[in-house]
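Notebook B, p. 112. Complex prediction, attempt 2.
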Amino acid sequence: MSSDPLVIFTPSGKRGHFPAGTPILTAARQLGVDLDSVCGGRGICSKCQITPSFGAFPKHGVTVAEDALSAWNSVEQRYKDKRGLIDGRRLGCQATVQGDVVIDVPPESQVHRQVVRKAASARQIIMDPATHLYFVEVQEPDMHEPTGDLERLEAALRAQWGIDAITADLGILKRLQPTLRKGNWQLTVALHRSHRGGAHRVLEIWPGLTEDRIYGLAIDLGSTTIAAHLCDLRNGEVKASSGVMNPQIRFGEDLMSRVSYSMMNPGGDAEMTTAVRTAINGLTEAIATEAGIHPFQILETVFVCNPVMHHLLLGIDPVELGQAPFALATSNALALSARELDLTAMNETAQVYVLPCIAGHVGADAAAVALSEEPGKSEDMVLVVDVGTNAEILLGNKSRVLACSSPTGPAFEGAQISSGQRAAPGAIERIEIDPVSKEPRFRIIGSDLWSDEPGFDQAVATTGITGICGSGIIEAVAEMRMAGLLDASGLIGSPDLTGTARSIPEGRTFAYVIHDASAEGGPRITVTQGDIRAIQLAKSALYAGARLLMDEMGVDKVDRVVLAGAFGAHISSKHAMVLGMIPDVPLDRVTSAGNAAGTGARIALCNSAARAEIERTVREIVKVETAIEPKFQEHFVNANAIPHATESFPELAQIVTLPAVSFHAGGDKGENRRRRRRS
Amino acid sequence: MSSDPLVIFTPSGKRGHFPAGTPILTAARQLGVDLDSVCGGRGICSKCQITPSFGAFPKHGVTVAEDALSAWNSVEQRYKDKRGLIDGRRLGCQATVQGDVVIDVPPESQVHRQVVRKAASARQIIMDPATHLYFVEVQEPDMHEPTGDLERLEAALRAQWGIDAITADLGILKRLQPTLRKGNWQLTVALHRSHRGGAHRVLEIWPGLTEDRIYGLAIDLGSTTIAAHLCDLRNGEVKASSGVMNPQIRFGEDLMSRVSYSMMNPGGDAEMTTAVRTAINGLTEAIATEAGIHPFQILETVFVCNPVMHHLLLGIDPVELGQAPFALATSNALALSARELDLTAMNETAQVYVLPCIAGHVGADAAAVALSEEPGKSEDMVLVVDVGTNAEILLGNKSRVLACSSPTGPAFEGAQISSGQRAAPGAIERIEIDPVSKEPRFRIIGSDLWSDEPGFDQAVATTGITGICGSGIIEAVAEMRMAGLLDASGLIGSPDLTGTARSIPEGRTFAYVIHDASAEGGPRITVTQGDIRAIQLAKSALYAGARLLMDEMGVDKVDRVVLAGAFGAHISSKHAMVLGMIPDVPLDRVTSAGNAAGTGARIALCNSAARAEIERTVREIVKVETAIEPKFQEHFVNANAIPHATESFPELAQIVTLPAVSFHAGGDKGENRRRRRRS
């Protein structure tokens, strides 16, 4: 056994004997302890802060004397005077081992620290970004050993950080000489290394040791909205989140209309590409301003998106995606530079990673959901539904995962709904209808009060009550069904059949009035028969997709359901099941994953190894194409009823009893007959 | 021993036994015989043409029967009808082995054929370009196996050509889907593979099998002129050569004035970068037009240039190159895309290779000379001098190579010479002066006649006699020295001392009239005392550089001298030695390598392995910096005389006897005294 002092690190528990005088940072590196350092042990970056513990540690079998570390030194004092240092903390590169010691590495000194996601799920992100900062001292040029400044930087990185090879764009090369001289041959370098290997790429340089932090954007590029999270690439912290409408909406609300636009208009795809890239540039500027950073500090961007958005982002005509066999131009993950995508608002060297697509209808967004929700690691049979303009559906467990996409249309996002709007202050997001009085109460985004609670009018005075958002319309339809205002076929009853004046004629059918401010010149918010039909189409598509995967998997039921999507968090499980959006499962087995695609993007942004993982996983996922599967049509038709006709709902029945109303004048053809009668 | 038929290939001599029915192309591949094919044996590209021989071959020990190959088939007939096929030729992919056979592979069917350089030297270029064409059949998309078109192209290239991995820019991806469909899933792909390894990069795609050839540009980017060769990347043939003046001349004639311009004018370096890139774009268009090709067929470009031009091409401020320690921003070879350099006239995916720099004063042009002239492979001690605005000088043999650069200025190129002009029709390029009559005779570029030959006046009627080019001025000064019009110190004698009225007063000194058409309103072409001084400065710098390397090498003499440079081919060895440009060696040991830098560029263009070779060689060359070496100044001052004072010229003395004239009134200070006397 060594007579050298024993060094024990917590929380890792790693331990080893080191000669007296060994810096703690050196000991940590030799043991593989996760202790950060940007300056490489020069006492200037302060990233290697540690907390020594003293006294007896029976658990570890050591007693730590007060002089187990070298004395506080002038470097540490200077740092403390200049930047501050928590009492008890030492710099790991300055404090040296003198006797047995227990060293705690606080979370902020760990490079690969775990970031707990804010949402309900316990999914953690291990920080292992592709881009890191390195401080380096470069040898001055020597006429007798004439190598270039870049080559001497490479040599310094090799000697000081063990980095093998680097490459740099002309833009960096152009700035390298003045920056090195300004920093007196000291430089901070942001180096990016692909998970596929190869040389490290210099993304940015600063003279001396920089105070700047570096950031990445995780972008969920949806058909309707573009959402971005700005993450600190050191610790994964989300500094700002922001979103904009996808400006391509003016070329078509749903994906297929955009594909058609491209087919009908030469250069139409280029127009849409320019529109979306411009929007991303605006979003980048906005989010940088919100976070108070300079956009050049954004050095990485990860995109998740459906295949049509994927192609339009890349500048590829999506026309092949509009017709069988739905061939993607490329399905693999892509590593690009921001410059190639005209993403001019961020650093021009920023590296872009686009997740792989699973198939022509199942995109990088579905891959991101798979990365976030990991159905392939599940013990039980899990159905993951990402509800957006298209629904991405994954079904599986650790032995096999199936995927498909279902064209739900934008109804679930409040589009194509008469009083629909996107989720913004003023939109009705929750609704309850009293089954006896048929009177509604609701809540709007921006207020926690229900509409029948005192103070509601004042609370909503600034926003107004402007419309109904995606989760609101789902609740409204389900509540109407539970209150007997709607029959199983989706017909809204007349005032005489429903017994409420809120049921009003609307053309040849009826509508239900949730809120009427028309007397004061405000909006009248109703759910029309057309709205019901739109929701029925959307939920039938969703259910049919899930059902098709269950057929393929050979299962009749699933063990649990994960609802993902930007508004997944807001759908109540009960209402989703009343509507027949999802198969019958115990309500407590329906969970929300929030914006799982966005989370997948953040994981890929913060963890380089996750990129390799999803590229591997995607190859193993079995793709099911809904568009050509006759059973999809069959499931779709059968799923029209609310909840629907093909499945019994024993789990749901334990919670709600759906009224056995029928507003048909006579059976299936009732609606038609009534129309004839009225005309 | 195998009873299978024996197949013998000529000229390689490779042989092997193959089962009857084996296609000749297959046999060639298995034996590693260099037999071309673009279509991979589908009988459509005709690149695998071979010539079978019949009869007895005692040398090979075989007799070839008439039916040693399968019968002429319909594929061959169709090809012959459509495109023509030389009698006796077969397609190697169609003709199969039936008995012992001798197969000749004609030069045009060899991929790695050798191209003999046009110039005198026997240096050969082995064709091994980084970019090749491949014809490939891609699997159609399948909804049930949804991979992208790019991924299926990659799979096809792997299966059909053994190519491991490919990568493609967005511009190619954008065109991939329509191109595949237009070619009915057949595609020709231009693939580039770096000599450093990595994935093959798709540079261009064509539907089906293309008729297009692909080209590369070898560009010698000089301070004064930019010269380009357009080479067929299949066989190395130079399709066109062209040159333009470097437009940076307006920012300064020599390199240091351009560096000063950049230091004095913010953004000056960017101005010069734009100017040179624009000129290269113009040159690219001109050379493509001249060769009758489309510029998008240009897929590769190689640059050789001095360090200042190197930085200005790359968009890097050359300011550090203007002052010790002359630090390059980067010294390694660079692999870039044409897009990064704004080289918009060629294919946007074209790959650019810039040779490595040896030192801050010894650039990629010197590296190219080293690649072309291979001093490091020489058995004897060779001095290689590349004469341009700066002279690049290499000295060495197989054990060691030294390099330096010497600031000769542009006098050798006819610049800063009173009647000087660039080498173009109308310029005097050869001159002789009768030692008795002191009368000159000369030849101009564009005519083979001497000025005293019948028909000369008619021959030069269209061009006129416009000036004197670089090689002309060197010959003129040497001839003046041999004719006794000039003394060893470089003074031009007065008419009374020289006995010719062609010696005329010019200010306080004299000039020699070569040609006078001023009576007819034409030019008067003279060599002035200022011209002599400019040539003396240039040749002293050149000689001092060579001498410095000899000191470093510890040698007093060299075994041979290679004169390189755009005008190297035109300098006569005798005149160069009379002038004292080069050390004393037997005249037959002075050879011209023509534009060795340009040849080096062509080698790097046509042979990918040569890039690895020069990158390795450059690291082994010992750099000597003239600017800080006191001995350089000493050599420079001593080299002012013509030939010069520090060396005896026994080899030269065997050929010419230089007249022992002196035009000084009294020793060293004569010129000054005479000036005083006249004033």
